[in-house]
Every structure is written in C-alpha cells, then in structure tokens.
Specification:
Length: 228
C-alpha cells in the first residue's frame, strides 16, 4: 500500500492509496488522514482536504484525546489543556474552572486519555443526578439505576426496568442540551418509541425542545464522532 504526506495550513495528513472507488477521511490513533484510490492525482487529494478543512479543524479542536497542549470540550466550552512535567509528579488531571492541567513524569498519551475519560465520567454522573431529580416528577416517572459508560452512537438509553445509562461524553454538552438529553430519556420510561405521544410528552415538559433536538443532531454529531 503506497502512501505519502501532504501539509495543508500547518497540518500534516498521511495519504494512503488503496483499491477503492472514492476518497474519504480516516482516523488512526486520533490523527486524521486520507484513504484515496490508486493513481488519484495529488492535486485532487489536496482539493478534497481544502473542501473539508473546516470540519477537520473542528474535529481536531473537539477531539477529547487532543494532543497535549490542545483543548478539552467540557460543559459546552473549550478549555485549554496544559502540561506540567517534573520528576516526582503524581499523575493527575486538574481543572481550575478555566484550564485543565495534566501533571506527570512524562507526556504519556495513554495516561491523559484515561484521566480525561475518568474526569468526564465522574462529571457526567454529577451533572445528570440533579437533573433527573428535578425532571422526574415533571415527567411522572421513578428511574431505577443510573450508569455512565461508553455508548455507540447514542447519548443515553433506558430499559424496561427503568434503569438508565448515559454516555460519558454528556459532560461535554452545554447545560440546556444536557437538560434535553435527560428529559428525552425520562420520557422513554413511559413511551419506548418516538411516536406522536412520546413527543407530546417531551413538549409538555420542555416546550422549546425542538431547538435543542436540532442542535444535538448537528453539533452533537461532531462531538460523538470524536475518538472514543
């Protein structure tokens, strides 16, 4: 398999040529590259990258596993990730309300990945709990066990037994969007579908849910696509 590198606006992309008909973006260990058909001119690959550069830039900014010195999306805002390395450091990730500070003996990507996930899991549970307590009486339900874990293509899910689970990336969402995710899932404890009665119930609790639903479908998709 042949490959080459292209630099565009200060970002290097690895282009891999394969037996395929179309060209597409790829993600390998958090780095964006290109899979292109054999014999495709480099100029065509460059044009493809230019056409998709805005999306690429957003991805790199919002990737939860941003390179050290990058940023982390938390509670709807980007926060710079700073690195402090010293010999007797104990690995930890701190958040001072404005910046994330990663302390360790070495710049270890595996460690920072684990610490970020642990932080977001903990914060998701902290942020979800009070919202469930607030909205459950408005919806008229009594949820069971609440879990936070990795999910595939979904922000939350519930079971017939009333148990609920939420994606750990929920902590990355703005407050009002997280409210919608909670209401959306609580209403599923009554209607396990997306029929008219379900949406009527959502609207009775959150009359302006339409704009939040639309935001989650557009902006939320990019957050969900970040490396997990």
């Amino acid at each position: 398999m042949a490959k080459t590198a292209i630099e565009l606006k200060g970002i290097e992309f690895i282009v891999k040529y394969k037996r395929r008909q179309d060209i597409l973006l790829t993600v390998d260990r958090g780095e964006i590259g290109v899979a292109a058909p054999k014999n495709m001119p480099l100029s065509k690959v460059e044009r493809f990258l230019e056409e998709n550069f805005d999306f690429i830039l957003k991805y790199k900014q919002r990737d939860v596993f941003a390179a050290l010195g990058g940023s982390i999306l938390f509670n709807g805002k980007e926060h710079l990730l700073e690195t402090v390395i010293y010999d007797d450091a104990k690995e930890r990730l701190r958040f001072d309300g404005n910046h994330f500070i990663f302390e360790n003996k070495t710049e270890n990507q595996v460690t920072i990945k684990r610490l970020i996930i642990e932080f977001l899991k903990e914060k998701t549970l902290e942020m979800i709990g009070p919202r469930i307590d607030h909205y459950k009486s408005l919806v008229g339900v009594s949820p069971g066990e609440i879990k936070v874990e990795k999910m595939f293509g979904r922000w939350a899910a519930c079971s017939n037994f009333g148990n609920m689970k939420f994606h750990w990336k929920c902590a990355m969402l703005p407050d009002d969007i997280l409210d919608y995710v909670v209401v959306h899932e609580l209403c599923h404890l009554i209607h396990l579908n997306h029929g008219p009665e379900y949406w009527q119930k959502v609207e009775s609790v959150m009359p302006d849910y339409h704009s939040k639903k639309e935001w989650l479908e557009k902006e939320g998709l990019q957050i969900m696509m970040g490396k997990q």
